[in-house]
Amino acid sequence: MLLLVYHREWLEDIAFAWNVLADVAGSGGWEVVVATWGALDIEGRDVTAVGAHHRRPFAQATTPDVTVTVDPDVVWTPWGVDGEHWDVFFALVEGRHHTESPFLSEVDDKAALEVCLREYEAHSGRRVARPLTLLPDERLADSPLADHARVIVKPVRGGKCEGIEIVDPATLEGHLREAARGERHPFVVQELVDDVFLHEGRRWDVRYYAGAVSLVPLRCSAYREGIVRIAGARDGDGLAGWLTGGSFRGGRGMEIWDMHLSEMWHEVELRNGPIPGMWEQVEELVRDVFAAVARRARRSPAVRHTLCLGGFDLIVERTGEGCCVKLLEINSHPGMFEWDPALNPPMLPAFATWFRDVADVVAATP
Questions:
Q1: Which end is more exposed in the chain, N or C (fewer Cβ atoms within 10 Å of the end residue's Cβ)?
Q2: What are phi and psi of 203, to 5 degrees?
Q3: DSSP code per residue over 224-239
Q4: What is the CATH number of the domain that holds 156?
Q5: Are residues 243 and 116 part of one domain?
């Protein structure tokens, strides 16, 4: 049994998203209740949801505005927990599997992600493919990035492309001095992944969904599909030619132009010839990132019931006649089904697999 919990003001606004989740889960045999934080009453193992949406297993539709009492196996909080209801959250998830992963949320912070990956690399001897990154407490002069003509600056806790800049070394030095004086929020500096495959003259990157149904031992899944986000301006046309986030494009009145990764890669190979290994690189990158998160998670007693479904932002760099898939960042509460609904069908098998994997873990947990 799955309980999806949303903030009250967002429940109706994003009904398109949770309806799809409920459809996929329900068709796989899950009972689904969609509710808001303020409408929950918890007594022992029983959770009563008022004004909820209820989807019975294999039902054809969701029943709206009902009061239902359930004992959920899994609590999924796609948009996080608001500040008023943390007490409800802790009572709700006691002894239950849940997706409010403190481990994945921690590496939403771009500096924390870089530290986590470096620790994993030092421990495992593996290399996680990503752009060169300078942490807020590191000196530019000690980094290979000092030789780059331009770099990208990202606030460590930024989202929706807010606060991102592409700057030259002189401007960057000024930003670093401001941050040292506390006049600018901490940021990381990354190399620009410049040599990429273009689509009609525009850059693109990938929102990729991957799930870990167990961190210790590690059990994660990588799916062979993703959503390609195409920049709203041509390559070289300022920041708009680099950034692909939906909020960035939509907030500036740009065309929201998305497609499937399998479709885009087919076009790439038609133009450039076969480029083997792209999907295998995605899968290897996902396993390494979850292994890094899992290594850090081992120190917490909460790890046993943690489920992680992350939004990985990836970019594909050209490397001669090949390619290299690189990790840009992670989103612990990724938007889902916010693209054109026509793009949904090829994405649904990945989410169906996620629900099957979660069901196996729930069934195996005493």
A1: C
A2: -75, 160
A3: S--EEEE-SS-TTSTG
A4: 3.30.1490
A5: yes
- For residue range 42-99, list pLDDT tens digits in order: 999 999 999 999 999 999 889 999 999 999 999 999 888 888 899 999 999 988 999 9
Query: Quick one: 224 and 344 in the same domain?
Result: yes
Same domain (yes/no): 139, 225: no
The residue assigned the tokens 């790890």 is 303
Residue labelled with tokens 């398109």 = 16
Q: Please give the Cα distance from 281 to 287 (Å, whole number).
A: 10
Nearest alpha carbon to residue 189 among 203, 171, 204, 206: 171
Report whether 155 contacts 187 (CB < 8 A): yes
Run of H or E residues at 209: strand 204-214
Integer-rounded Cα Rg, in Å, for the chain is 21
Containing structural domain, residue 218: 104-129+194-364
Type of residue at 280: E
Structural domains of the chain, count: 3
Among the listed ranges 31-40, 106-115, 246-255, which one has the minimum average pLDDT value? Answer: 246-255
Q: Are 326 and 193 in contact (CB under 8 A)?
A: yes
Q: Do 67 and 213 sit in the same domain of this protein?
A: no
Q: How far apart are CA 291 and CA 216, in angstroms?
A: 9
Q: Do 169 and 27 belong together in one domain?
A: no
Tokens of 222: 């990588």
